[in-house]
Structures are given as C-alpha cells and as structure tokens.
Specification:
two-stranded antiparallel sheet, 11 helices, 2 domains, single chain, alpha/beta, eight-stranded mixed sheet, Rossmann fold
Length: 368
C-alpha cells in the first residue's frame, strides 16, 4: 500500500518557553477509515529519529514505515477496525516545522534561532492536528521511547480526549545515564567544524559529527546478546589480526553504515533540539510525586517494557505502573522477553501484537 504524507498548516503555536512559532506545519499520515461514530482513532507517536511514515510504502523512498509490522489489516493496530494517525513531531525535519524550516522573518532557515521546544509542545501541536481532523476523542494514543513520553503527556494534559494509552519502552523522566548518552551525541555534532554554530544549510553538512552521534545512539538501541548474535568478533574482509584503524570488525562496518545512512535523512539541529526536549521531559515536574502528576489521567493503560532494554530499563515502566495503581487507575503491565534491546518494540512484535490487539478490542467495546 502506497501511503503519502499530508501537511497541514496552522497560523501559530504558543510554546512552553513563552515564544511562538508562526506559521507551523505538521506532516502526518493516516491508515484505515474513521468510522461514523468517530471513536476508532488511534494516534501513533514515533521515537526521536522517526517521522510520520509509520506504515505502508513511501512513494518517496519505496520503503515501508517504521512500524509497518504493527499497523495494517489484521496487525496489532488493525486498519480494518481502526483509523490510525501518525505525525512528525515539532522540531523534526520530515515535514513538520523544525530548525531546517524557513523563518518567515528572515527568509532563511531557523537554525539555532529556532526556539526551545518540549514534549508538551509536541503534544500541543498533535492535539491541534487531531482537532483539525475532527476527532473528539482518541481511542488510544501510543508510542515507544519518545513516543511513549508523548503518550503519557497526552493522558495527563488532555485526559478527556484519551480513552486509553499504550506507553512502550519509555519513562516519565530521563535518568542521568540517558541524558549522558544524548549529550555525547550533541557534543559530537557541535564538535564537527561543519556544524558552524548551526548555520550549515546550503553548505557542507556536519555529517561526521551526526554520524558519530547516530553510532553512539544505535549501540544503546541494541543489547549485548543481539550484538553478539549479529556480529560477534567477526572480522570484515580479512582472516587474520592486523589492524589499520579502518574497518576491522563487522560491528564497525555496521555502525559506520548506520551513521552514514542517518546523515542522508536527518537534520543535525533537529537532533540537538529533540534530544534536549527528551532530557527536559519530567512528568513529575512541580507535582511532588509521580502519582500526583498522573492524577488527571482518566485513560486505561497498557504499559509494556522489554527484558533486554538497558536504555529504557523495565524499572522505569514499573515506576509508572506503581504510580498509576496508587491512583487506582485501570492499568495492565507486561515485561516481554526479548534479546533485541530497546529496538525490541520495533522488531520483536509477536507477543506485543497479541497484547495490544486484545487491549484495543476490549477498549473499543467499552467505548462503544
């Protein structure tokens, strides 16, 4: 199925920083059909480097969406039953306004003059899109990693607009280690001479720094077991030891490939802004406790984590579950066994599909 993104423009959006963006575009894709009751809509939210292309085949790249194994007829998010929406986040670089967008005041890309953004700002723009689509209430809001942060923010910020939430492999706030990994990536980009203070548009891209940032990030997405199984200590193009500081091991070749591939599709400044938004996200901010922060939520919850995910370890999901149960919320939790690390929510989908399929069917029955 060929799926093409649409773009809607809004006059402006007010940001948590006190700044405003005017105008602001948001790119999105939809799958399935909205029913007559308008009660079967599901908002799918992407991880930090994702985009609106969650399912189907892109006419631009010919590639399937990042969650194509989960969205479609008969899949977890069954498009024979549900109307699924996926949008690119504020600050992104795949159709939604971000640092690479043209600042109407100057006629040049925003670059580092782009205002600071938050997860809450992203969700505010998503609500504007849902309002524009004429959807009074979402049957569910879901996503993994940063998408899960947004799902939690939706449930708290707009409780009357969300019937259920499925946060996957995520957290209510970053740990020091999670912030540290993001900072290494940011420093790699800013240390590249071609970054030029963020003013590189139309010039040489800071490809070396962005590639290194992606390499570091990709290591955190995998597990020790998955890397051992996929690469081991296999040498590439040689049989005997004899290093030359080029590609010696298969894992080195893989990381360099991932890094160079990323440079072709992602904006370095978007990397800086989005990772900083993730680091600043804290659902408990000003609330005293996580249970207090979750008090406004009215949604049913299905919280999922994965046994080998060391970037967003299960204890963080379990903290969320305990806080929800302290509020007597309707919450189910599953830690799924997987060897794929943080990437499990993208690739190890069999058990995840069964959980989500049953949860959504029950939620739709209750909502009807």
């Amino acid at each position: 199925m060929i799926v093409e993104a649409s773009v809607v423009r809004f006059d402006s959006i007010a940001l948590d920083s006190g700044a405003a963006l005017a105008p602001v575009d948001v790119a999105y894709e939809t799958y399935g059909q909205l029913n007559a009751a308008r009660n079967n809509a599901i908002l799918v939210l992407h991880a930090f480097s994702g985009d609106a292309h969650a399912a189907g085949i892109s006419p631009e790249t010919g590639k399937p969406g990042w969650w194509d194994n989960m969205i479609g007829p008969g899949k977890a998010f069954d498009t024979n039953k549900y109307f699924v929406i996926s949008s690119n986040v504020l600050g992104g670089c795949r159709g939604t306004t971000g640092p690479a967008s043209i600042n109407p005041a100057t006629g040049c890309p925003y670059g580092m003059s782009f205002p600071g953004i938050t997860i809450s700002d992203m969700v505010r723009l998503e609500k504007m899109l849902i309002d524009k689509l004429g959807i009074p209430r979402l049957l569910s809001v879901t996503g993994g990693s940063m998408g899960g942060m947004q799902a939690l923010e939706w449930a708290v910020a707009y409780p009357d607009r969300v019937v259920s939430a499925i946060p996957i492999a995520t957290t209510t706030r970053h740990s020091a280690q999670q912030i540290a990994f993001n900072e290494v990536g940011r420093q790699a980009i800013m240390a590249d001479p071609d970054w030029n203070g963020g003013d590189y548009y139309g010039k040489q891209l800071p490809g070396r720094g962005l590639a290194v940032a992606r390499m570091v990030g990709h290591i955190t997405y995998m597990s020790d077991d998955s890397m051992r199984e996929k690469f081991g200590r296999r040498l590439r193009g040689k049989e005997n030891f004899g290093f030359d500081f080029d590609v010696d091991f298969e894992v080195e070749s893989y990381l360099r490939y991932r890094g160079s591939q990323f440079v072709g599709r992602f904006d370095a400044n978007s990397y800086l802004y989005i990772t900083k938004a993730m680091d600043y996200f804290d659902l408990t901010n000003g609330q005293g406790s996580l249970a207090a922060a979750l008090a406004p939520a009215q949604a049913r919850f299905l919280v999922i984590s994965f046994s080998s995910d060391w970037l967003y370890p299960s204890y963080q999901s379990q903290e969320t579950v305990r806080a929800l149960r302290a509020r007597n919320c309707d919450v189910a939790y599953a830690e799924l066994p997987s060897n794929y690390g943080h990437d499990s929510f993208l690739v190890d989908v069999a058990e995840q599909t069964e959980l989500i399929r049953g949860f959504l069917a029950n939620t739709l029955e209750r909502a009807s």
